[in-house]
Structures are given as C-alpha cells and as structure tokens.
Write a structure and sequence with these properties.
By secondary structure, the chain is α+β, with helices and mostly antiparallel strands. Helices cover about 30% and strands about 45% of the residues. It has one domain (about 1-130): Electron Transport, Fmn-binding Protein, Chain A (Pnp Oxidase, Chain A, Roll). Strands 1, 2, 3, 4, 5, 6, 7 and 8 form an 8-stranded antiparallel β-sheet that branches.
Length: about 130
C-alpha cells in the first residue's frame, strides 16, 4: 500500500526495535544503496552520514529508505519511505542527532574516543509518501 502519510501502526514499527534502514540515493542516474542507523518521528526520518551518501544527497536530495523486520529469514513487515533530504551541518544539531541514534541503537551516548570521528552531517528526510506491508 502507498500513502502520503504514515499510519499509526506503521509509525510504531518504525519507532520500536533496532532495525537498520537501507538508504537509496542517486547521482548521475546511478543508484547507491547503503545501510544506516535511522530514527523516525512525526513524518521525518533522520540519520547522520558523510562520504558518498552525503555527496549524493547534496547533488540530488530525493531519497528513499527501506526498513524491514525479519525473523529467521522470513519478513515480518517492511516499509519504504520516500522524501526530500535536508542536510544540517550545525555541530550542536549534528551531535544531538548522533546522540539520539546512539541512544536508540546502543542504549548510550556516543563518545569520540570510543566511536571515532563524528560524521559530517545530520540529514533529515521529510517523508512525502510511504509503502508498507
């Protein structure tokens, strides 16, 4: 099913658990897909990134994220989000976004000493449509 808004049941899928997303970007008519940590709230997906993904988003901010929960290779549910990305490089906002992701996936705050250098940007995707099943 494809809709312009994400129903409450699907929002619950996206906000509980620790599934990773696969981010799809495109540059020069070539797709690029990479796994990422993400966070979803109020119609916005956010993640932190750098490198090729960030280059692609800056060149073409139209992206999609695919998230799936499976058990023993059997899909329980899947969601695909489509939207336009906004790049945020403000250090305080970037660190706050990184902290939210670490809290979700690791249950703790990040530390530069333990987790390496922070990524270059926080990316927020305003979800325009979604499909799920």
């Amino acid at each position: 099913m494809t809709e312009t808004s994400v129903p409450e049941e699907v929002e619950e899928w996206l906000t509980t658990g620790r599934e990773m997303a696969h981010l799809a970007t495109s540059r020069n008519d070539r797709p690029h897909v990479a796994p990422i940590w993400y966070r979803y709230e109020d119609g916005v997906a956010e993640f932190v990134t750098g490198g090729k993904k960030l280059e692609n988003i800056r060149a073409n901010p139209r992206v999609s994220l695919s998230i799936e929960r499976s058990e023993d290779g059997v899909g329980q549910w899947h969601v695909v989000l489509f939207g336009t990305a906004t790049v945020i490089t403000d250090e305080e906002k970037l660190w706050a976004g990184r902290t939210r992701l670490f809290q979700r996936y690791r249950g703790r705050d990040p530390s530069v000493e333990e987790d390496g250098e922070p990524p270059e940007a926080l990316v927020r995707v305003e979800v325009a449509s979604a499909s799920w099943g």
